[in-house]
Every structure is written in C-alpha cells, then in structure tokens.
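Here is the promised in-class demo. Please do not try to memorize the tokens; focus on the logic of going from shape to residues.
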C-alpha cells in the first residue's frame, strides 16, 4: 500500500487519464452527466437560501416588535435594505464565479488577493456556517413536524438523525441525484410562497386568523420611536435570510459545461426568487397588520391570512417543513468542494480531494454528516440552541469576499472597475457591520463558541500545512531525485510452524532477496521450549535451504523481539535493504477473520514503529475449493 504525501493535483482521476473537454454544445461529456444543469443547481444548492424566507422575515419582526406597532411599520424598509444587499451579493458572486471557475467562493478570492491567512479565516467561517446550516435546517424542519404532531417531540433527536442519514445517502449517490430528489419539494415551496404573496396582495384584510387565535402577542407596548440600534439589530437579524447565497460560487465545478455560465444563471435566479419572496412577505406583513405571537410562525400567519385555514394553508406548512429539513443539502453541495480545495492547498488531509465515480467528494460528505450528527445530539434537536451560532460565519465570509473583489477590480482595472469596486466596497461595509452587530448581540447566547472555534480552525489548517511542508521537504518533492540503485536485499520471514503458508512465504522471499532468514520467537516456558524443539527438528528434516534463527524472549511479546532483531540486522548490514515478509491467511468468509490471532498485524506494527525496514504482507487466500 502506497501513500502519496504530495500535492494531489489530479485528485479523483486515474494517473494518465485526462478529463474529457467541455465543449458546451451537443451531448454532455461522460463526466457531465454527473454534474448539474442550472435548474438542478437551483434545487441542489439553493435550499438553504430558499428556506430562509421561513425565518428571515420572522427574525426582523421579532426585533421590531419590541417597539410595538410603530416599530412594525419599519418591516418593509428593513427588508428592502436586505434585498438591496442581496442584489449586491448576487452581482458580486456572479463576478466571483467568472473570476474563480474552480469554486471556493470567498476562500478563492481571499487566497489570491488578501493572502493565505485571510483565506483560511474565510474558509473556516464557511465551514462553520455549512455545518451549522445542516444542524439548524434539520432541527427546524423537525420542529415544524413536532408542532403538527406533538407526540413525536420526545423522539426529535432520532428523527433529526434519520433525516440526516437520508440526505447523506442521497448525496453519496451524486450531486445530480440529490438535485433530482429535491427538485419537486423546492418547486412546491417556491410556488406556494409566490401564490400566497399574489393572493394576499388582492386581499383587503386577512381571510383567517385562526392559527394565531389564543396565542399571546409578542408585541411591545407604548413605544413611539425606533432607534438606529434597533433598526441595525433588525437588519442584522433579517440577514439570516442571506445564508446560502454563496453556495453556488463555492460549487462551480459541480455544474455542467460551460460551468461558470450555468452557475451565474443559477446565482441570478436564486437572488431574484429570494428577493421577490422576501419583499412580498414583508408587504403582506404590513398589509395584514400582522403581530408576532408565541408558538406560531409569521409564515403560518401569512398563509392563514392569504388562503384561509384550509388545505392551501397546510400545503404551505408542509412544504416549509420539508424544505427546511432538506435545506441541509446546500451544505452537502458546497462544503465538500471547499474541503477539496483546502486539501489541494495542503490545509486539510489529501483524502478530502478524492472523488468517487459519481463526481462525489465522498470523504467530505461523510465528515460533514459526522460533525452535524454530533451537533444534533449535543443540542438535543433544539433549534434555539443552534440559531445563536448561525449566520456569523457567513457574514465574515461575505465581508472577506467583498474586500477581496475590491482588490481584484483595483488590480485588473477593466472598464467600469470603479463602479464595481464601489459596489463591492459598499457590500463589504454592510456585511461587516452585520457581522459585528450579530456577534455582539448574540455573544452571550452562544456566539462566543464561533469566536473561539474560528481561530482554532485556522490554527488547525496551519498545523496541517506545516506537516505537509515538512513531509514534502523530507521527500524532496519538486526536485529530480538521484537515479535508483540496486542494493543487496535481506528478507526476514517470521515463522511459527511448518505449513503450506510457510512454504509459499519462503518461495516469495527467495524470489525477492539475495539472502533469506527465517526467524521464530521462543519463550522459556516448558511447553514453549517443546514447541521450539519440534519446529527445529521438523525444519532440519524439511531442509528448505533457509537458515532458521531463534530469537529468545523472556516475555510473551512477539512484535518487540522481532523488531529488535530486525534493527540489529540493519545495523550489521548497513548497505543492505532489509525487508520483513509477513505471511498471513485470507479466510474465505468475512466472519472467519474473527478467528485469526492477528499476529501479522502485531508484527507489522512493531516493525513499522521501531525500524525502517520494508514491510511486505503475503496473503494466502483460503478458498472453498477443496483442491
């Protein structure tokens, strides 16, 4: 088994095999059938952003409600400000996609224009956001389910884990498969929200208020003014609706050729749909004079007011529940690609850069699922435990990306670069302020964990990078090595008795080495001495032409005496290559491996730990064929 410690520049492809060219016309290349179209990208990578309309407007309303009915009147202006920021971000990420078609989003931008350390901060913030998005989305979807069926509340953790397993399994089959599976729920959700907005605009008043009846109002009393700090908090809270906007730019390689153009179309479609839904919902909030109440979501009240308490109301609720639960798919589409880029830059283990047959970064998918499962168990399946941690990371990534694009325009200076740089600079200011406000207001509610986790992740990236650098220096990567030379070879074969396995091992050893030594470990116990004497007698009768060497050990250990002998042998033969050939049996059935004594593994571990000898493990397959 060989391990490539170098930079995996062709991860996921067999050596010498080039990817087919993407022409952009005609039949898709063989690999393209496992990549996304623009519509499929909207379903696979936008669920997080789409689902955020279920809690984005509500976050604004809950903050403004502290100022009473007067404060509620600022819902639309705050939403328009968020929509303007959304437009800035969509325009920016379209440029990011064009400039960085290999994906990576804010990480790729920061790496080129802001330096390696800043790029690692961006990557760490994205990783935290993606992981938290999975946990928040799943718990929010299950919360909607348990609200409809309270008897399931006690099983919410297991339901969360079950949904996570389902989403993980779908993504392991490929990003296209996940897009196909989630296309219908996305279409139902978007269609129902848009229909609710259109129908609501034709209503003079709410059709029904049954969902809010009997619930305590969360509206403040007596306020007649709204301060700048409250508006800033409402803006920052509502910006949670912008999470997921960056996912398309992070996963550009997942699209069919021309990948950049398809990703740009997906980004624009996502921004347009999200903006229309956010503004439409905020208009309905003001039109129906909605008041936040405890235990009922704002979206549920709006559906009640527009459609009435009928089947359409339950369609909206069910579609919201399903999409919230499946919004975790955005992370599964974006994070594995980001991790593969980090791995190629030697900031994560190289295994994350490998691709499976369906263009899946399988190890990244499984790692995301494992960490998310731990978060779900830690939080007890409670959304409120995780929400204070959410969205901080994405604001940090937004800000870094915007600043990096300002540097990009300043360096490239294409036509109209000043206007583009001003737009990105304004976006960086808005997202930077939002990041500070959200962190400050949510610090004691759990946001301090993100403040601690972010630098720890960056330190981890740095440590992995240093380890790869040291390994690369020892291996002299990038240099032309000296011509290989043949040296004298000594092969050591551990034996414990005579068998067909011993014969095959010595035959293989004699074909590999100039000198072969059979070594057996003996112990002073009477029964062990009798076994050693029997082996010596049988060996002399067999006469294999290989010397049998006895290594005495006072203890019952096997690995250390052999490794000590091999180390001394290497010292007495400094110009020879010492190889330890370990014969082992390969049972016909998997369960029969439990019957083995694992001596081969013990010897291999000891020799690898204590010596520089080459280890060769010879497998003797035991088949069901009696011959």
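The designed amino acids, position by position:
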């Amino acid at each position: 088994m060989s391990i490539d410690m170098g930079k995996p520049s062709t991860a996921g492809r067999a050596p010498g095999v080039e990817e087919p060219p993407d022409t952009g016309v005609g039949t898709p290349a063989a690999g393209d059938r496992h990549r996304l179209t623009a519509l499929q990208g909207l379903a696979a990578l936008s669920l997080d952003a789409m689902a955020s309309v279920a809690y984005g407007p509500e976050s604004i309303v809950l903050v403004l409600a502290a100022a009473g009915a007067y404060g509620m009147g600022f819902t639309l202006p705050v939403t328009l400000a968020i929509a303007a920021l959304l437009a800035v971000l969509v325009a920016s990420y379209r440029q990011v996609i064009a400039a960085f078609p290999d994906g990576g989003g804010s990480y790729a931008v920061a790496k080129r224009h802001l330096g390696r350390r800043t790029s690692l901060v961006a990557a760490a913030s994205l990783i935290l956001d993606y992981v938290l998005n999975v946990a928040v989305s799943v718990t929010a979807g299950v919360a909607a389910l348990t609200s409809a069926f309270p008897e399931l509340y006690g099983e919410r953790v297991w339901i969360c884990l079950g949904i996570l397993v389902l989403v993980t399994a779908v993504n392991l089959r490929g990003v296209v498969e996940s897009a196909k599976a989630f296309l219908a729920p996305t279409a139902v959700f978007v269609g129902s929200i848009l229909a609710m907005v259109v129908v609501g605009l034709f209503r003079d008043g709410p059709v029904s208020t049954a969902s809010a009846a009997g619930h305590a109002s969360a509206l403040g009393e007596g306020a007649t003014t709204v301060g700048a700090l409250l508006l800033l908090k409402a803006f920052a809270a509502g910006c949670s609706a912008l999470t997921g906007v960056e996912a398309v730019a992070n996963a550009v390689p997942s699209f069919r050729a021309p990948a950049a153009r398809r990703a740009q179309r997906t980004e624009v479609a996502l921004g347009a749909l999200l903006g229309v839904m956010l503004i439409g919902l905020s208009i309905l909030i003001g039109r129906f004079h909605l008041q936040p109440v405890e235990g009922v979501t704002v979206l549920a009240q709006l559906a009640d007011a527009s459609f009435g308490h009928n089947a359409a109301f339950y369609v909206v609720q069910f579609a919201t529940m399903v999409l919230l639960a499946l919004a975790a798919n955005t992370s599964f589409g974006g994070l594995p690609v980001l991790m593969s880029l980090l791995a190629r830059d030697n900031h994560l283990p190289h295994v994350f850069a490998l691709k499976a047959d369906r263009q899946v970064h399988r190890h990244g998918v499984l790692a995301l699922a494992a960490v998310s499962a731990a978060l779900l168990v830690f939080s007890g399946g409670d959304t409120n435990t995780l929400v204070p941690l959410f969205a901080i990371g994405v604001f940090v990534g937004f800000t870094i990306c915007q600043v990096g694009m300002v540097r990009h325009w300043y360096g490239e200076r294409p036509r109209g670069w000043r206007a583009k740089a001003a737009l990105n600079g304004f976006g960086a200011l808005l997202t930077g302020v939002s990041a500070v406000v959200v962190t400050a207001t949510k610090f004691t509610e759990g946001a301090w964990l993100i403040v601690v986790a972010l630098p720890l992740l960056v330190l981890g990236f740095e440590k992995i990078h240093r380890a790869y650098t040291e390994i690369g220096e020892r291996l002299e990567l990038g240099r032309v090595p000296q011509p290989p030379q043949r040296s004298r070879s000594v092969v050591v074969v551990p034996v414990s008795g005579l068998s067909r396995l011993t014969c095959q091992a010595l035959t293989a050893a004699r074909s590999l080495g100039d000198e072969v030594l059979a070594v057996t470990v003996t112990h002073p116990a009477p029964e062990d001495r009798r076994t050693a004497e029997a082996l010596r007698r049988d060996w002399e009768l067999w006469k294999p032409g290989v010397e049998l060497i006895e290594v005495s050990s006072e203890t019952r250990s096997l690995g250390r005496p052999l490794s000590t002998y091999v180390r001394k042998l290497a010292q007495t033969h400094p110009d020879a290559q010492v190889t330890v050939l370990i014969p082992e049996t390969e049972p016909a059935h998997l369960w029969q491996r439990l019957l083995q004594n694992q001596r081969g593994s013990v010897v291999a571990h000891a020799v690898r730990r204590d010596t520089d000898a080459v280890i060769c493990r010879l497998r003797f397959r035991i088949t069901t064929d009696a011959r």
